Amino acid sequence: MSSARTLPVLDLSRLDRGADEAAAFRAELREATHEYGFFYLTGHGVPQDLLEGVIKTARDFFNLPEAEKMAIENLKSRHFRGYTRVGGELTLGKVDWREQIDIGPEREAVAKGPDVPGYWTLEGPNLWPEALPELQDVVHAWQDQMNAVSLRLMQAWAESLGAPANVFDEAFAENPSTLIKIVRYPGKSDPTPQQGVGAHKDFGVLTLLYVEEGKGGLQVEKDGEWIDAPPVPGAFVVNIGELLEVATDGYLKATVHRVISPLIGQDRISVPFFYAPALDATIPSIALPPELQEKARGITVDPNNKLYTTYGENSLKSRLRAHPDVAAIHHPEMTG
Asked: Which of the 8 DSSP states describes residue 73?
């Protein structure tokens, strides 16, 4: 059963309206992610034509013939990039009812070796559909905008917690680990809601989610209830991941969330952007002011989901679990 509560709405443009407005925004940011771990973000400055363009291009991709999509199937990429068919990804061992394309930073592949940490296999080229060359242009523009918004939020969080604005910059600014998922949730004829994405926490630092207007399905857990989080026109849904919980000794809390599949005859496009430090980086720990430290709840310990200090270890663990078929083909030495 869902709650009547709604998520907070924050306006990023307040950072540009003078010292008082900026301080008020940072206070709201801190409180929203302490209490909810989620909020809507307006005033972000991402152009409307790009917001519309990413949804249109996503639909163009999913409308391609099956053979065109399967030509870039993720089973062909040791970097976990490319297209995943419906039912091809798992959350906590259960099948997610969605199709998607995974796109990361366009970088050179790192060769495997006995002295090379396994997580470097996540670096590498993307797989792009030949029939839709404009996808690359839209995604590259999206990456630039999302990186800028994300870094600005990280600096605002740092200041809101009593730290220098640039405390996170070294881990993020030069070589962040980003992942764009362009996702389609097809409708299902089941009489009860089905798992689009199972209940989980994000393991990185922050997520910027853009959903086409009018398409609900995202739910956020709060005090044992589910809060519906339908899209707000022009806004992003933002949530923090487990590494920001680690950085603040649990003062900021990663929150469980899920997506319910649409019913038959409907579908839903969403574009989550995951922002995290470089693969070999460690998230800095924030020395909180006493009045915040006394409210820190400690890091959530899950014996079935170990958190590593190096980001790449967490990312690789997640990809191996979510895509065991890719792991079996390309990384048998990492499975078992």
From this structure: B
- Enclosing domain of residue 124: 2-334
- Determine the residue type at 136: Q
| Alpha carbon distance 62, 51 (integer Å) | 17
According to DSSP, the residues that pair with 3 across neighbouring strands are 227
Q: Give the β-pairing of 38-42 and 9-11.
A: parallel
Q: How far is CA 6 from CA 2, 68, 157, 190, 202, in A?
A: 10, 40, 22, 27, 20
Q: Is residue 255 within 8 Å of residue 180, measured between CB atoms?
A: no
State how far the Cα of 214 lies from the Cα of 243, in Å rounded to an integer: 31
Structure token digits, residue 13: 């443009």
For helices 19-35 and 134-160, angle between their N-to-C axes, nearest 10 degrees:
100
Q: Go through 188-215 and write b for each residue having 16 or more CB atoms within 10 A of its CB, e for each that does not.
A: beeeeebbbbbeebbbbbbbbbbbbeeb
Which CATH number do you get for residue 52?
A: 2.60.120.330
The helix (H) or strand (E) run that includes residue 50 is helix 48-62
Q: Is 275 helix (H, G, I), strand (E, B) or coil?
A: strand
User: How many folded domains does the chain comprise?
Assistant: 1
DSSP structure string for 96-160: ---EEEEE----------TTS-GGGGG-S-----TT-THHHHHHHHHHHHHHHHHHHHHHHHHHH
The helix (run of H) or strand (run of E) holding residue 66 is helix 66-70
Which uninterrupted H or E stretch holds 11?
A: strand 9-11
Global pTM?
0.95
Q: What is the C-alpha to C-alpha distance for residues 155 and 113, in angstroms, rounded to an integer?
A: 36
Calculate the CA 191 to chain-centre distance. Answer: 29
Cα–Cα dist 43/11, whole Å:
5
What pLDDT, on a 0 to 100 scale, did the predictor assign at position 8?
97
pLDDT tens digit string along 26-83?
Answer: 999 999 999 999 999 999 999 999 999 999 999 999 999 999 999 999 999 999 999 9
3-state secondary structure of 200: strand
Which residue in 227, 252, 87 sits closest to 158, CA to CA?
252
